[in-house]
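Retry 2 of 3 after timeout on previous attempt. Resubmitting structure tokens to design endpoint.
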């Protein structure tokens, strides 16, 4: 997904894209290690410190949007601006049927932690079904990439992320985040309720909203020209 942004804005900016622990091609942590939003935020701060990076902007999609807000609270000088695409704010996901409450339940998560051996089956058999809705509104290459991302994610990272997101709520912190922020969302998002992004745009002191009609959870894939133009105008 980010390749579009990098390709179109590479003449004006340098990009760093980080695989969170347990996702993409990153190392798999020890099984007993909890991969919470807090853990990922601390890892990203360590990454920036190690490479002496102070980004002009943090760009986060979905859980990444929540992480960008978390970083802005933990270390306000980490970046000048925030770009939040389809962000999770209050821990709610699933739309119109919200399922975040299920993952916030400790008993459910204990059960899920014991089902790890089924993950390989889920990734090979269930993942095509899980990602099938994306085929309705994405081209075949983008849909295949989403399925590949799902298959690369570890069971530990996936379940811990859902559990942590469901228990995290950035809403109380929004009024304290002074960074200029661009919130981008799709009006037809069925993964994160659009009201999550609207809440951020309404509550952040220096935010603007770019809401795309008939767009789902992948604004950069679905309407790349409008998103890239919006991001470029916001950053420069």
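Retry 2 succeeded. Sequence:
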């Amino acid at each position: 997904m980010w390749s579009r942004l990098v390709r179109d804005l590479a003449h004006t900016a340098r990009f760093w894209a980080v695989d969170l622990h347990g996702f993409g091609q990153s190392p798999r942590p020890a099984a007993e290690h909890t991969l919470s939003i807090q853990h990922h935020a601390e890892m990203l701060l360590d990454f920036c410190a190690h490479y002496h990076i102070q980004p002009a902007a943090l760009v986060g999609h979905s859980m990444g949007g929540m992480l960008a807000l978390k970083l802005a609270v933990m270390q306000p000088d980490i970046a000048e601006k925030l770009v939040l695409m389809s962000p999770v704010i209050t821990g709610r996901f699933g739309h119109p049927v919200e399922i975040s409450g299920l993952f916030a339940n400790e008993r459910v998560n204990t059960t899920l932690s014991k089902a790890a051996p089924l993950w390989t089956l889920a990734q090979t058999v269930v993942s095509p079904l899980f990602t099938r809705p994306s085929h309705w509104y994405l081209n075949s290459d983008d849909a295949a990439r989403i399925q590949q991302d799902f298959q690369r994610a570890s069971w530990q990272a996936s379940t811990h992320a859902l559990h942590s997101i469901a228990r995290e709520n950035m809403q109380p912190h929004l009024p304290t985040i002074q960074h200029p922020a661009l919130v981008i969302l799709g009006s037809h998002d069925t993964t994160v309720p659009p009201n999550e992004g609207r809440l951020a745009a309404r509550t952040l002191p220096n935010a603007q909203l770019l809401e795309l009609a008939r767009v789902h959870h992948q604004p950069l894939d679905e309407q790349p020209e409008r998103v890239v133009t919006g991001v470029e105008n916001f950053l420069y």
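Attempt log closed. Residues 2-10+32-80+89-181+190-227 form a domain with the Rossmann fold fold (CATH 3.40.50.1820).
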